[in-house]
Amino acid sequence: MWRKRILALVILILGVGVALFVFKSEPKLNPNFESQSSFFKHSPFRLGLDLSGGSHLIYKADVSAVKAGEVSSSMDALRDVIERRVNLFGVSEPVVQIQEGGFVSGGEEKLIVDLPGITDVEKATEMIGQTPLLEFKTEALRDENQQLTVDKDGKLKVDLSQQFVSTELTGRYLKKAVLEFDQNTREPKVGLQFDDKGTELFAQITKDNIGKMVAIYLDGAPISTPVVREEIPNGEAVISGDFTPTEAKQLVGRLNSGALPVPITLLSRQTIGASLGGNAVNSGVKAAIIGFLFVVLFLILWYRLPGLVAVFSLCIYISIILALFKLLPVTLTAAGIAGFIISMGIAVDANILIFERIKEEMRSGRTIADAISAGFSRAWFSIRDSNISSIMTAVILFWFGTSLIKGFALTLGMGVLVSMLSAITITRIFLFGINFMGESKFARFLFSSGISK
Fold first, then answer.
1. Is omega for the bond preceding 329 within 30 degrees of 0, making it cis?
2. Which three-class secondary structure state does DSSP give residue 428?
3. Is 429:354 a contact under the CB 8 Å cutoff?
4. What CA–CA distance (Å, rounded) separates 76 from 74?
5. pLDDT of 224-263, one tens digit each?
6. How is domain 2-46+273-447 classified at the architecture level of CATH?
7. Burial of residue 34 (number of CB atoms within 10 Å: 0-12, 13-18, 19+)
8. Do residues 118 and 49 touch, judged by C-beta distance below 8 A?
9. Cα separations (Å) of 191 from 48, 257, 413?
């Protein structure tokens, strides 16, 4: 018995420690947050766009030059590139999702970008727009119609847009870019290394265009038009031009962060103010506190001492969940807070099933200790089945839902998993730990229901 009491005390101390971590690592709760160690400062709650404010951008992707069967993979590559790009600017948990062409989107492929904490829309669009579009183009056939223009010196000039035609090789297949210097002139240049697919495409392009120019376009403008001398099978290319070392270094960084596989055009932009997000946070926290207080009142009035134990268990459960939200980390949205509040009710539901079984066992004449053991063992199957069904629902919602639904499903699923620990393990240890009054009338009074017979 003393072992269980010591274990209950250890769990209580650990629970207090977790709650202290949540308090110290949250600037809105801890007035001395700035004086805390870096461990606490780097673990704040991460709030979604609807709670923290930020920018909501919708882009149209031009996939007219992409084969029908490769549109999906091109859009996936575009999403990955944009995510890498905004991550370089320290944006916390950006949400980049694809809206496939269909009736709802008017048949257009669209990319939706949510940037929490970035309320400057101009800055947000600049971050996305700085990602370069890298293309490789070959010379058009001689017999194709080419437009001639006259420059300011009166000389005929071929329109480059007609002189070169696009190929399949784009920045989508770029593996990495490096800064190099010409050994003779010491001029900076940018070396490119393609992935396996890009290497194959580049080898075929150079093989088919020996003696011809292959133009390298960046953001729609030609920056280099080298002549192919021989097939290049190793997937390496060089961009040379009138670069300064700073410009070349910047270009390398932009290419490594992701060259856009397809062009994009900004369709709409929207700013969600921090004040609106703050109101949503306050409303969610207020709802959680009110719900928690009502649950506490019900448990104590109805189940007396076991109800009080369930309250302590619920407090530890809440501390563990909030700590996990910080450490994983989980981006909290209004829907995510709703999922967390629902999981609190599920955690209490498990305790209610256990306490009702304990009450029935005590009515049949069992001792308190035997009633506790039987109550937990017989209620386990109902708790297991209900929690498994809840977890399955959360997994399905997370797998098929939008980002808003995923936030709800994630917090709900985490809450259900942790509630099984708090209801089955922590509550059980606490109940055995406080059972030191024997079988006195007062002890049976404390362990019996407070309102029901």
1. yes
2. helix
3. no
4. 5
5. 788 888 888 998 888 876 778 887 887 777 677 666 778 8
6. Up-down Bundle (1.20)
7. exposed
8. no
9. 38, 15, 47
Contacting residues for 155 by C-beta, under 8 A, at least 6 apart: none
User: Are the beta carbons of 122 and 131 closer than 8 angstroms?
Assistant: no
Q: What's residue 156's pLDDT?
A: 54
Q: Which residue has the tokens 């994983």?
A: 328
Residue-wise pLDDT tens digits, 52-104: 778 888 899 888 878 788 788 888 878 877 877 776 566 656 778 888 765 44
- CB-based contact 192:238 (threshold 8 Å): yes
Higher-confidence residue of 440 and 183: namely 183
Mean pLDDT for the stretch of residues 424-453: 71
**For residue range 128-174, what is the model confidence (pLDDT) as tens digits?**
766 567 888 998 776 555 555 656 666 555 555 567 888 888 888 88
How far is the C-alpha of 83 from the C-alpha of 94, rounded, in Å? 7
Give the span between the Cα atoms of 248 and 178, in whole angstroms.
9
Q: Is there a contact between 316 and 422 (Cβ–Cβ < 8 Å)?
A: yes
In the sheet with 214-218, reading across from the earlier edge strand, the strands are 164-170, 134-139, 214-218, 221-224
Confidence at residue 451, expressed as pLDDT on a 0 to 100 scale: 45
Ramachandran category for residue 314: left, alpha or beta (phi over 0 → left; psi -120 to 50 → alpha): alpha
Domain locations in the chain as residue ranges: 2-46+273-447, 54-272
Check if 2-46+273-447 and 54-272 are the same fold.
no
Q: 108: exposed, middle or buried (C-beta count within 10 Å: 0-12, 13-18, 19+)?
A: middle
Strand order in the sheet with 95-99: 95-99, 109-116, 54-61, 264-272
Burial 164-179 (b: 16+ CB within 10 A, else e): beebbbbbbbbeebeb
Q: Which of 383, 290, 382, 273 is nearest to 341 (CA)?
A: 290
**What pLDDT digit, counting tens, does each position of 103-112 carry?**
444 458 888 8
Q: How far apart are CA 400 and CA 137, in angstroms?
A: 39
Cα atoms found within 13 Å of the Cα of residue 280, Cβ hemisphere only: 20
Q: Which amino acid is at 206?
A: T
DSSP structure class, residue 10: H
Nearest to 120 by CA among 264, 270, 267, 268: 270
Asked: is 54-272 a CATH 3.30.1360.200 domain? The reply is: yes
Strand pairing class (46-47; 331-332): parallel
**Torsion angle of the four alpha carbons 86, 92, 93, 98, in this order, in degrees rounded to the nearest 10:** -30
Beta bridge partners of 157: 149
